[in-house]
Design brief:
Elements: H1 12-46, H2 50-84
Helix pairs in contact: 1-2
Length: 100
């Protein structure tokens, strides 16, 4: 059994939040890629079936919309941060210094 020498600190939240944001953006990118592959495969296997081709087109449309939405949200956060002088895409805590 491991012994913990020191308790968790609030400053550890910065790392956790940064990792969560990074993982979320990576998962969004992977989801878009998978949707593109599924939609493309649907087009290739549709043959003359108009219904299957429409379904594949919807999948590709949703993939593009998701990509645009994700990139737009990131850009909006960056622009707001530029105007307000706050970096929204980097999480940090300002802890008070300990009393002497």
């Amino acid at each position: 059994m491991a012994v913990i020498d020191s308790p968790a600190q609030i400053s550890g939240l910065e790392t956790v939040f940064g990792t969560v944001i990074s993982v979320a953006l990576s998962l969004a990118g992977i989801a878009v890629l998978v949707m593109f592959v599924i939609g493309g495969f649907g087009f290739l296997t549709a043959g003359g079936d108009k219904e299957a081709a429409q379904k594949a087109q919807k999948t590709l449309t949703y993939a593009i919309a998701g990509l645009v939405l994700t990139v737009s949200a990131w850009i909006i956060l960056k622009l707001i941060g530029q105007f307000l002088g706050v970096e929204f895409t980097k999480f940090s805590l300002q802890l008070p210094s300990p009393a002497p």
